[in-house]
Amino acid sequence: MLISGFPAGPWGTNCFVLAPAQGSECLIVDPGQGCGPQLREILAENTLLPVAVLLTHGHIDHIWSVTPLTHDYSIPAYIHPEDRYRLADPIGNTFAMSRDQLLAMTSGELELTDPQDVRTLHDGETFDIAGLTFRVAHAPGHTEGSVVFEIPREQEQPPIVLSGDVLFEGTIGRTDFPGGDVQAMERSLRNVILPMDDDCVVLPGHGARTTIGRERATNPYLREILAGGTIVPPRRGV
Fold first, then answer.
1. Rounded to whole angstroms, what are the CA distances from 176 to 32, 231, 235?
2. pTM for the structure as a whole
3. Which residues face 128 on adjacent strands?
């Protein structure tokens, strides 16, 4: 399996490309601001053909480039229905920033229009696309429609989870943005994240890769839940 990822834009959003092998169809996950040049380089180097964009949630730093990508490659974008509205108004429904502030942050580039072909994902749904199998788990808390994408174990390959902004190395996503909910985040961590196998590889929306076992042992938020406590999510970060 081919997995290539890189941080995009001023928020350092991890954009991932996943494919069964070189020379095959592929998926793009969370295309952030300015991801185009590096993304095209990965596609060309590995002779990959994008067939869909998967979105872990609808925050602006994860969906910035979804419309040009879906247009250029004539492919659909997939998102949970509870975050679907964010694609139509990513500025008004994400951060407390004006359009002028965002333009200043991104050198005047702002491509924020609704994709033409948007398809919705539902909790527990399993689908095969680009030669890969994914399971969708609804994991609200950071936003109403946050999801994680699980790729099951295959022979020598451990399971993989694309955790978006639900789980990071050593921390979790904020819940104080519009649509955030600390109780929902706690349930998502307890019921979606913690039951995963220790060797499950975590590909987060920001920061370094990790594993569920490492986070179970060291992440203070998961440790608090395991101890029966109540979490107080971070108010810095993403």
1. 21, 13, 7
2. 0.92
3. 133
pLDDT by 10-residue block (mean), the chain, 238 residues: 94 97 98 93 98 96 92 96 89 60 57 82 94 97 98 92 98 94 97 98 98 98 96 83
Identify the burial level of 50 via C-beta atoms within 10 angstroms of its C-beta, where 0-12 means exposed, 13-18 middle and 19 or more buried.
buried
Distance separating the N- and C-terminal Cα atoms of the chain? 29
pLDDT of amino acid 15: 98
Q: Which CATH number fits domain 2-226: 3.40.50.300, 3.20.20.20, 3.60.15.10, 3.40.190.10?
A: 3.60.15.10
Q: Are 180 and 223 in contact (CB under 8 A)?
A: no
Phi, psi of 99 (to 5 degrees): -60, -40
φ and ψ at 2, to 5 degrees?
-105, 125
Q: Tell me the domain boundaries of the chain.
A: 2-226
**C-alpha count within 13 angstroms, C-beta hemisphere, residue 70:** 25
